[in-house]
Specification:
Layout (H helix, E strand, L loop, with lengths): L1 H15 L8 E5 L4 H13 L5 E4 L4 H12 L5 E5 L1 H10 L4 E5 L14 E5 L4 H11 L5 E6 L1 H17 L3 E6 L6 H9 L4 E4 L10 H11 L4 E3 L2 H6 L3 E4 L2 H16 L8 E3 L3 E5 H7 L5 H6 L1 E3 L1
Parallel strand pairs: 1-2, 1-3, 3-4, 4-5, 5-11, 6-7, 6-8, 8-9, 9-10, 12-13
Antiparallel strand pairs: 10-12
Helix pairs in contact: 1-10, 2-10, 3-4, 5-6, 7-8
Length: 299
């Protein structure tokens, strides 16, 4: 339904504004990560826009090479998929209309402005707290480690939402990865559920296994806001699915070109509750009936 809705909106805009078909659009993909490629394939299938595609293959050299091309030949719209593509938009496409997606570094690199719009990687704070209460109703003490460079706004919103719901919320900020182990040990006695945001200043392929094992050993379940983290080891989470992200990206890109969308804004893709059955079995944990009825099960 979400995909069809996004395709319909984009198609109507192009029918009403045929000049948009002539607009120069570039889709820049950070790498061949499956989550990026799934978004790209969905966008190709559902968008009526004509565009040039450039895959950076995760290489800074490729980013610089593309940057040189863009210096004298900027597109009308640059769609940035992932962190490295967002960095290209920031460094080489000043003044362009930009739509970013699947990029959790936009605050850190200060990718913003009147012509910059995007799909947030973070669901609304109130929905995250609601998801925790539904999936893990006996857990009352939320803990999180975050990097203020990337997620300070979300932490403030989460603190307010948790307080409103009667839950404890303990957050420790770190700016260097070396501070993660002592911070997690400090936090362990103050929480009974760990909230994992898509924060590049904390979560990486190197740190995720450490956080997962530490929490598992201390019998602290992880609730995540990324499908990737939910599938890798969180017991549950609240996150958007790729088709929902694609629907929002398809509609927003067409609307930005037609100047029908208020640029300079970030939008949340619709998200839903997920429960990871494999991890629940490791914990010997039974979700309450309400969670089972509302959530999508990951085997």
């Amino acid at each position: 339904m979400q995909m069809r809705k996004g395709r319909l909106i984009a198609g109507l805009i192009l029918i009403l504004c045929p000049s948009l078909i002539q607009a120069k659009v570039m889709l820049v993909v950070s790498s061949n990560q499956p989550c990026y490629l799934e978004i790209v394939q969905g966008f190709k299938k559902n968008s009526a826009l004509s565009f040039e595609e450039y895959n950076l293959s995760g290489l800074e050299d490729e980013a610089r090479k593309l940057g040189k091309r863009l210096e004298g030949n900027k597109p009308d719209l640059l769609i940035a998929v992932g962190n490295l593509a967002a960095k290209v938009a920031k460094e080489y496409c000043d003044g362009c209309a930009v739509v970013y997606v699947a990029a959790n570094n936009v605050r850190g690199i200060k990718l913003s402005g009147d012509k910059v719009s995007g799909i947030s990687v973070h669901p609304p704070a109130a929905k995250i707290i609601e998801g925790i209460k539904t999936a893990l109703p006996d857990r009352k003490r939320i803990g999180i480690i975050y990097n203020p460079l990337y997620t300070s706004k979300e932490i403030t919103e989460l603190q307010a939402a948790a307080s409103k719901s009667g839950l404890s919320f303990q957050a420790i900020s770190v700016t260097q990865i070396k501070d993660l182990p002592p911070s997690l040990n400090q936090l362990a006695s103050q929480m009974d559920v760990y909230l994992m945001l898509d924060d590049p200043g904390v979560i990486s392929p190197d740190t995720f296994p450490y956080i997962f094992m530490t929490c598992f050993q201390k019998k602290i379940p992880i609730f995540a806001t990324s499908m990737d983290f939910i599938e890798k080891g969180a017991i549950a989470g609240f996150a958007p699915q790729p088709d929902q992200i694609v629907a929002e990206l398809t509609a927003m890109s067409a609307q930005v070109l037609n100047q029908k969308y208020s640029s300079g804004k970030e939008k949340n893709a619709p998200a839903k509750l997920f429960i990871n059955n494999k991890i629940a079995q490791m914990w010997n944990f039974n979700f309450p009936p309400q969670a089972k009825s509302q959530a999508t099960l990951i085997q």
